Known about the structure:
The structure holds two protein chains of two kinds.
Chain A: H1 2-11, H2 13-40, E1 42-47, E2 50-55, H3 59-65, H4 70-73, E3 75-76, H5 86-105, H6 110-133, E4 139-140, H7 142-168, H8 175-183, H9 190-200, H10 209-214, H11 226-255, H12 258-266, H13 271-298, H14 303-308, H15 320-329, H16 333-366
Antiparallel strand pairs in A: 1-2, 3-4
Helix pairs in contact in A: 2-16, 3-16, 5-6, 6-16, 7-11, 7-13, 9-11, 11-13, 12-13, 13-16, 15-16
Chain B: H1 3-8, H2 18-45, H3 70-78, H4 81-114, H5 121-139, H6 145-161, H7 173-182, H8 188-201, H9 208-232, H10 237-244, H11 249-260, H12 262-278, H13 281-286, H14 294-299, H15 309-329, H16 331-344
Helix pairs in contact in B: 2-15, 3-15, 4-9, 4-12, 5-6, 7-9, 9-12, 9-16, 10-11, 12-16
Amino acid sequence: MGRPLSEWIDRQADRLFILPAVVAILAFSIFPLLVSAYLAVSRFQLTAGGYQIRYIGWLNFKKILTGSEQFHFLGTFAPIPWFAWILPLLALLFVGRGLRLYLTTGRVTVLGAIGRAISAALIVALATLIAATCGPHGGLGTVSVTLMYVVIGVSFQFLLGLGLAMLCAQRIRGRGFFRVVFMIPLMVTPVGVAYTFRMMADMTQGPLSPLWRLLGLGDLTWASQGWSARLVVMVGDAWQWIPFIFIVLLAAIEGQSREQVEAASLDGAGFWRIFRDITWPEIAPVAATVVLIRVIEAFKIIDLPNILTNGGPGIATESLTLHSFIYWRTLDLGGSAAVAYSLLFISTVFSVSFFNFVVQPVRSARK
Amino acid sequence: MNARKSWFEPRKLGEMAPAARIGIYAVLGFWALVVLFPLYWLFITSFKLPIDVAYPPKYLPFLDFAPSLSAWRYIFVDLGNDTLRPYFNSVIVALSSTVLSVGIGSMAAYALSRIEYKPRLGSILCFILILAGVVVAVLAGHVDWRLATLVGIALFILVLRTVARRFRRHVGNPDILFWIISQRILPPVVAALPIYVMFQHLNLLDTHLALIVTYMTINLPISVWLMYDFLVGVPTDLEESAQLDGASRFRIFFGIVLPLAKPGLIATFLLVLILAWNEYLLALFLSTAKAQTMPILIAAQNGTRGPQWWYMSALITIMIAPVVALTVALQKYIAQGLLLGAVKG
């Protein structure tokens, strides 16, 4: 009996190797994705002895886009303050330049044009959305807040991580020590990071409270102001994720060829020249990939805002994942799925655009 | 160091001006402080009494305040099982899901790097359509889910044997690889709801199994990605000669490939383990009491009387101590694993 079975297994080996992974992903990604899609267009109600799911069309999306929950998802609209006009203008300039470059290459395809149109429209729309809700009478919605965590947070993390990696790549004693120490925050559970930063940021009893008193800020509570609360969330996130960017970039910098750098420094090139002309072109593909990974993960942020500020004050620090989770907790499964799907749409378009228009060109420029 | 010489000769290659060196040390030292101080504060807070958490802050145990074990006694003796159970839940869930994820992931990665697959586009499309049909039938048509699944499978086999054969277009290994990796873009919250409902139907909510299977899957993209990049670099001559000797794929994989891939395996294992150990959102959905994991226990400490910093600090300390120790001990592998994904990606 054993022989035919084992022979059969051997014959099917090619399939059996990949089957478990494909089945697991189908069961836990594709199937849930379809169910979520259905939930997003239906209403979930608890009834006597069970629940009922009823198809209601686009009402869930209507609610968060134009209806009673618009303030929560998109934000409260207000006249655009003068300084905020720069956001949609910059987005238009950026997108316009990209599109013009694309149209002048002469390799325009239908699919490529559609993809670029979607990316361009999303970028301009999101920039306008932030501008239209950031005024003194407006209020940012969860879309804008999540985008801020992604764009501002990741840029900041990237610059600091790159700077630290550059410094740590110099020939100095104790590099090994710094490298290990700088890596630690990556492993700390995000829930723990959130509580630790609540302690650190406590302005009345925290370790920095004497400093705040000295500066006359002892009575300020960061948790009651939208901007400072967001800042604290971003600082916590940066503390956790700078190590990731740091380690990868450090390895990339150390992997570059030494001779070129030495030849350049013999020629009298300074630190900046060497960085700009030799190091940066060499590590750019890795840098682009690291940023892509961070962007993908940053869209999913929930632990920090949930525990540091509970999404507050009001909804000032609420991310899209937290928004969706709050709906789920109140048994609004349809709304929860609608928010989750919107997040999926934004993060997919954003990540795929970043991959196609930043990571790929940088990689092919290198080759 | 010869001070007189350096006036006349250019500095040696790679040698820095003292000012630059001091500047670099200052920045790196400052960042080391930024990294370590919060952890130090966390650690000493776990030895504080409630009365010690007040203004002015107390920084140094024994000098500023008398360290007390009361928080530690509380979480280990008074809470006892309420601390230990989540802790062991976390250990069980993280370890088993990581073993499964890395195992299944490296099998798939090996297959994708050595065997050519050609799934037909037509079969994939009809699979998705039938799956969608089953979902709608169960949710909207109130068809029993077992019946709907059976009908769906039957339909799929039927279509596969007849219509789908006519489609010649197929996808290749790079497409499959990209498909698996791109699952990482999927925000967990999109999948969490249906997974919750699914486990509810299977009566598996709040069990280790539910968490293990879910974590295994959400970490599969990372396992496959890292192991693929690693296995592509492993030379194939040994495998080929084993194949000529008539060894089966499984023998080759477990006997030859896995031992060669040990560094990659360790790196992947560590990264996935840490992700599973720290996971929060899905645990929030899938575990309520019995299978509660550490992140949920810690998050729940935000009681009505305000956060109890001293208990919380002790809990967070025991949660992060093992992973920080692992990191310090095996940092080479972790750096390698992270680089593996980012460089070739």
